[in-house]
Amino acid sequence: MFCKHCGKNIDPKAAVCVTCGAPTGCGERFCANCGCPLQPGAAICMSCGVATKTVVPGAKSKMAAGLLGIFLGAFGVHNFYLGYIGKAVTQLCLSAGSILLTIITCGVAGVITPFIILGASIWGLIEGIMILCGNINTDGNGNPLGE
Length: 147
Ligand SMILES: [Zn+2]
Ligand SMILES: [Zn+2]
What we know:
- This protein is mainly α.
- It has helices at about 60-70, 75-80, 85-105, 115-135.
- Helix content is about 40%, strand content about 0%.
- The chain binds zinc ion (2 copies).
- One zinc ion (ZN) binds next to loops.
């Protein structure tokens, strides 16, 4: 592989480049696969076609989180997935709590339950769209989201 910072050939097992001292995998100026200079901001290498952006291992999927928010957002599923536990629990309590309340009160609370669930659904829907649009682009630990 090649240093992404200076383009010199380096040992794949090396943690840092012996030429420039940059950690391997860091830098955006050269292709790690073929060592060719990259266009600034290029997503793939024009010489060998390899993706230049290193995907962070364990990165949460933006697509999955967005879709979870849109379809199951009322129950906070997307926030559980991303690790925003506080928000997730709040959404789950709103929806599940109101359903529970309806059961306990033998349906009396059912008058307001649909509105609470609707509100939580809209909240989840908006967050799902924000995730897909990149307005929310980190998980609960501050790690960037993957595709
Ligand atoms: Zn280097
Ligand atoms: Zn290349």
